């Protein structure tokens, strides 16, 4: 811990970003092997995700004013500007789809990325927790209190409990990873659906946590991430609703226990819905 506290904030942040990427890579490889996604073109897809994510993480916070001339020069912003997780997620998604078209890879990969992104975000956000302003003031007992020097450096009040907003996000990401890893990836879902679910859940969480994060308000008390999410989340939720109406979740419904002869299930053994009454088939690869 002493070594970490002696590190420059930017170096400490970069360390946890690197650890997050490493964690995500390990999860991705394990899941790809489990699903048999061993096509070498998957490596190009991952590379596209990394390039797109890195580019849009930087560019996502550049265009903050309607007049382009009011924004910082692009090169200056690239070198010294803030990063955007939402921009990085969009860039990674775009990079995946562009790369797939370039290399002719048609299989969906979302189910490979979903748990990897969740765990990688949880680890990476530790760097934010240790180096960035925690959040808005709170009277809760778990508020983070900073000394005057640290508070002045971050531009927040000293000696006042602050919402540990990044700790909230770490908890969310770990919970999302647990659901994805131990439950969702074993369900009979359309290929790629776990990533859609993850994006929807994170979008909703992020919209609400913005109220205690302390980011600059842009319009009617909402921050720029909230304005983006107010448009993006309904689109993703509409996509989920359409999938449900098309019967895409029929396998998930069949897998749920229902009242059978024994009152436990609907299969011959009263436990599930498959031939043995235990479950349904495996899910696809993802998008």
Could you give the topology of this structure?
Blueprint: H1 2-5, H2 9-35, H3 41-59, H4 74-80, H5 85-103, H6 110-131, H7 148-154, H8 165-182, H9 193-213, E1 217-219, E2 222-223, H10 224-245, H11 250-255
Antiparallel strand pairs: 1-2
Helix pairs in contact: 2-6, 3-5, 6-8, 6-9, 8-9, 9-10
Task: Describe this structure in a few short sentences.
The protein has 287 residues and is mostly helical. Helices cover 60% and strands 2% of the residues. It has helices at residues 2-5, 9-35, 41-59, 74-80, 85-103, 110-131, 148-154, 165-182, 193-213, 224-245, 250-255, and strands at 217-219, 222-223.
Describe the protein.
With 287 residues, the chain is an all-alpha fold. The protein has a domain at 2-37 and 107-252. Helices cover 60% and strands 2% of the residues. It has helices at 2-5, 9-35, 41-59, 74-80, 85-103, 110-131, 148-154, 165-182, 193-213, 224-245, 250-255, and strands at residues 217-219, 222-223. A two-stranded antiparallel ribbon has the order 1-2. α3 (41-59) packs antiparallel against α5, α6 runs parallel beside α9 and α9 (193-213) packs antiparallel against α10 (224-245).
């Amino acid at each position: 811990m002493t070594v970490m506290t002696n590190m420059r904030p930017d170096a400490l942040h970069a360390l946890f970003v690197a650890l997050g990427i490493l964690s995500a890579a390990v999860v991705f490889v394990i899941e790809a092997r489990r699903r048999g996604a061993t096509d070498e073109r998957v490596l190009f897809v991952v590379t596209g995700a990394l390039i797109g994510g890195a580019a849009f993480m930087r560019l996502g916070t550049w265009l903050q004013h309607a007049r382009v001339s009011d924004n910082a020069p692009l090169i200056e912003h690239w070198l010294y500007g803030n990063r955007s997780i939402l921009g990085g997620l969009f860039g990674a998604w775009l990079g995946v789809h562009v790369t797939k078209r370039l290399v002719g890879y048609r299989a969906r990969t979302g189910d490979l990325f979903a748990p990897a992104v969740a765990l990688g975000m949880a680890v990476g956000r530790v760097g934010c927790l240790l180096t960035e302003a925690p959040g808005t003031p709170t009277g809760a007992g778990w508020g983070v209190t900073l000394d005057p020097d640290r508070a002045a450096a971050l531009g927040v009040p000293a000696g006042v409990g602050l919402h540990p907003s990044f700790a909230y996000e770490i908890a969310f990401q770990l919970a999302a990873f647990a659901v994805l890893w131990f439950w969702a990836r074993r369900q009979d879902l359309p290929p790629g659906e776990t990533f859609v679910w993850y994006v929807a859940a994170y979008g909703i969480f992020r919209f609400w946590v913005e109220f205690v994060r302390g980011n600059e308000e842009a319009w009617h008390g909402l921050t720029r991430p909230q304005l983006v999410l107010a448009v993006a989340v309904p689109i993703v939720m509409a996509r989920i609703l359409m999938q449900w109406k098309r019967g895409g979740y029929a396998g998930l419904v069949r897998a749920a226990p229902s009242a059978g002869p024994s009152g436990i299930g609907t299969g011959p053994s009263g436990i599930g819905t498959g031939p043995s009454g235990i479950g349904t088939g495996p899910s696809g690869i993802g998008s």
